[in-house]
Amino acid sequence: MTATPPLPAQLARLYIRPGFLLRRAHQISAALFEDECRELALTPAQFGVLTVLKSHPGMGQSSLARALGFDNVTVLRVLRGLQARGLVARATALGNKRNVSVALTARGAAVLEKAQRPAERAYKRLLAPLDKDQQAQLIELLRLITGELEEDARAAFVPPGKK
Hints:
Blueprint: H1 9-15, H2 18-36, H3 44-55, E1 59-60, H4 61-68, H5 72-84, E2 88-93, E3 96-104, H6 106-127, H7 132-148
Antiparallel strand pairs: 1-3, 2-3
């Protein structure tokens, strides 16, 4: 059995950078979610859109994008996929063709309901390597980073009801 050669210093530095680790953790999180929600053919972004729309039916597309920290192009792409599957309906506001509202369909609400258990399993799988205190600490640290650096984000995050 041969030993693995040490990484070049440049690669070792790259692999411990917070951005690299956060991106890799996000990839793993998405893979776990998609694995658990395979039979529903649901992505984390789609789950987020359906979840926000359940609590805020008829929300405008731009507000929906901000509620998830998506840019307008991303939310439009996700909505088109959901609309093609009959999970959401989009309607142009009367008198303002630029204002588009979005709502869950009955089918979308049913898929969201079916996704709750698999989404929870994905969340538990993601945090399984950590004990309870570490899980709470990770969530708190991620909230601190995202909260303190929000104004540097490429897309604004504005939860519904916040200005």
